[in-house]
Amino acid sequence: MRFGVNYTPSEGWFHHWLDFDLDSVRADLDSIAALGLDHIRVFALWPYFQPNRTLIRHRAVEQLVQLVDAAAERGLDVNVDGLQGHLSSFDFLPAWTRTWHRRNLFTDPDVLDGQAAYLRTLAAALADRPGFLGMTLGNEVNQFSAGPHPDPDRATEDEIDRWLARMLAACEEGAPGRLHLHAEYDATWYQDDQPFTPAQAARHGAVTAVHSWVFNGTAQRHGRTSVPAEHHAAYLVELSKAWADDPHRPVWLQEVGAPAPLIPPEHAAAFTEATVANAVDCPGLWGITWWCSHDVSRALADFPGLEYGLGLLTNDRRPKDTAGVLARAARERHAYKPATRTTALVVPADPAMRSACAPGGPVFDAYFRLTADGARPTTVLDTRTDDQGHLAARGITEVVTPDQVLPAPPGHPGGTRS
Question: Which helix (H) or strand (E) holds 99?
Answer without folding.
Answer: none
